[in-house]
Amino acid sequence: MSQIAIRDVQISYPSRRGGDDFIAVENIDLEVAEGEFVTIVGPSGCGKSTLLLAVDGLVHPSRGEISVKGRTVTGPGQDRAMVFQEFGLLPWRTVLGNVQFGMELAKEDRKGSEARARELIELVGLKGFENHHPHELSGGMRQRVGIARALAVRPDVLLMDEPFGALDAQTREIMAGELLNIWNVERKTVLFVTHGIDEAVYLADRVIVMSKSPGRIIADITVDLPRPRTNEVRASPEYIRLREEVSSLLFTETADERRVVTA
Amino acid sequence: MTSLVTLRRPSVGRRTESGTGPPPAARSADRRNRRRWALPLLTLAIFLAVWEILSRLGLGGFVQYISSPSGSASALWTMIENGELWPSVRVSVVAFVVGFAISVGIGIPLGLAMGWNRTVREFLEPPLMAFYVMPRLALLPVVVVWLGIGTASTIVIVVVDAIFPVIINSMAGIRNADAKLVQVARSFGAGRRDLFRKVLFPASVPAIITGVRLAIARGILGVIVAQLYVSTVGIGHLIAVYGQTYQTDYIVVLVLLVGLFGYAVNLALQRVEKRFETWRGTA
Predict the structure, then answer these.
(1) What is this structure's pTM?
(2) Which residues of chain A have a CB within 8 Å of the CB of B281?
(3) Dihedral (C-alpha) B161, B166, B169, B172: value to the nearest 10 degrees?
(4) Which domains can be identified in chain B, with CATH numbers?
């Protein structure tokens, strides 16, 4: 049975000027199996992040249904946890306090949650930084805290909204490798939204390509590269072929925009 | 693997009075401390010297209305000796402390409630804003009619002046809290109560402190102005009395005392503020 099931989902926002509703995504059908790593790529503004928020329960579909482990999503829940784009750490809390935040809200026992937090801080490579505040950390380190915080609540599904979007290219590559290492230990179902083609192919079992606004799924590409993946994967012919495939799909999608810009 | 990422360590200076022996940075910190005191003191000394010289030179015919540091010092001494100063200081400080405490005690919860709850805000904002822009000191006679001459009236004037920055800043603190953090908290299942306690309130602490700081200045001003008119005791009253007889030495020293008091209260508040400084700067 698939763990995440998105059936005929449309998400729309009421227009501010009282005209037609703005449709962010439509006709979305997607099934994700347990333990699968699925990335979603699409041009900016295609509604991929909105779709992720809907799976988290922060946004409600205007049509269709989303279910996780067979239960319809009506709001945020302990079976899902989100890693946010600009990290979303509480600046007044230490690394330890931030990692404990989700467990605290779930009313978990304090002692147990601290032990779990320390374990995860070590897993994401931040041992020794437990008592630092976010402003004392680099971007990459901050997102490690974000990942640890999400894993701490023991979710079945990890939702990642362009988690490395705010990082420089090099840190981004390092973090992608790190994420796979962490994923080897904490095998979650992952839904990962990005606009980075490399990242999408490198991380995924499947890459979902979305069209520009209103977002629809235009391709569902299986990535059959061997795991665990190392940087050598990026040089393999299969990787390059997949990368090209995704790239050309996205290029056609954004071709109109390009014409406007060059005109 | 962490070594691949740039590490930023916290500054060394905050580490004080812990561990064994003086930290290596103690000596330079000492020097920095001395420097911090030396410059303001020098400014003060130059100011007093110039003031004294100018008053001795006697600027034209105004000489009898011009104060001098030595004159002010002896005025201060006279007021201490004849027992005039201390009761006035006490009355003024009590009026300030009570008025300030009421402003903070009511202003912070009220402002937070207005920031958090739309109904409360829409209900209270129009009357409060209208009252805020009114020349409230013009209501002095009304306050006197209601409460008579004395400390109660002074406290009321302090509160109506000092409470507004507290309310407005507390409200702004909640309303300007990072929407991202609210989303994060909701994603992790925070209810309204947790959202307030764990996100909105801590996020508004810096704004609240700013409001409290403004309230100190306004509160002190309120005490003095109120006592100028509605009191028979207090520093403000003394200023009024000496003002009527053009005894500038006395006025100047009293005003300086008020300034010194405000400076001290602000310094105390800065101590409190420092506790929140650990995470300030970039969020």
Answers:
(1) 0.81
(2) 135
(3) -110
(4) 90-277 (1.10.3720.10)
